[in-house]
Amino acid sequence: MSLENFGTNLNIAVIGASGGIGDAFLKRLIQSNQVETLYGFSRKAPLLTHKTLMYHPLDLTNESSIKAAARAIPDHIKLDMIIVATGILHDDDLQPEKGLRDLSLRHFQDVFAINSFGPALVMKYFLPKLHKDKRSVFAALSARVGSISDNRLGGWYAYRASKAALNMLIKNAAIEIARRYKHSVIIGLHPGTVDTNLSKPFQGSVPHQTLFSPEYAVEKMLSVINEITVEQSGKIFDYAGEEIIP
Ligand SMILES: NC(=O)c1ccc[n+]([C@@H]2O[C@H](COP(=O)([O-])OP(=O)(O)OC[C@H]3O[C@@H](n4cnc5c(N)ncnc54)[C@H](OP(=O)(O)O)[C@@H]3O)[C@@H](O)[C@H]2O)c1
Questions:
Q1: Is residue 196 part of a domain?
Q2: Is this model's pTM higher than 0.85 or not?
């Protein structure tokens, strides 16, 4: 797939460079002769190294670190694409809640810090680096389970709510950014269920044919990013380009 709606000499930032989906974005974009420089950010360095890839650490729970990461991109460089592929569903101390009895303030704080507040602060420091006179796209990985109207199963309180909050933050930023960056598009993307560490513990109930490889999900999302228009800014789309209703 080519990014024919973007031109050449592209500068692209991928936040979440060490993750399953972030790594697949880097691998795919490194192969593109349209890309000049890739800027990768995450706490852990990506496994991948390449002459077009500049890595800088970034911790979403530390605002100074997000600010320093944005400043690591030279002032004269404008970004054609910003992809936020960070997120948390579980870790060693945190499992998605099955019911109200599992709710905890600490859990909410940790999940919202990474899934909602972090990406919002990334928007604060990275969106001013978009082009003012040329098409550029900011896409943050959201999730279908963040849709309130689509919620039929319940559970996963913090994750669902943090993604719903992210969707609102995306809409807000899109309204504001449209005033000064008239060719920019700000969207959320649902990648499908993708075979990464994030989904590992929950893959048992997923039919084999609906569990995507990170490479497949990234190919589909890059098609959406390539086709997306300014009129669609502020919305959430799945990997096939279908809008997800909030
Ligand atoms: N996989 C799926 O089935 C699926 C489905 C729907 C939506 N999504 C969404 O897709 C996105 C990417 O998920 P994934 O499957 O690629 O998960 P993953 O493999 O677990 O990657 C998560 C990424 O988030 C980064 N991260 C976590 N905490 C961070 C922090 N405090 N500061 C900076 N970076 C942090 C990790 O980097 P470091 O640990 O190095 O910091 C890593 O790069 C998430 O938003 C997820 O909600 C995934």
A1: yes
A2: yes
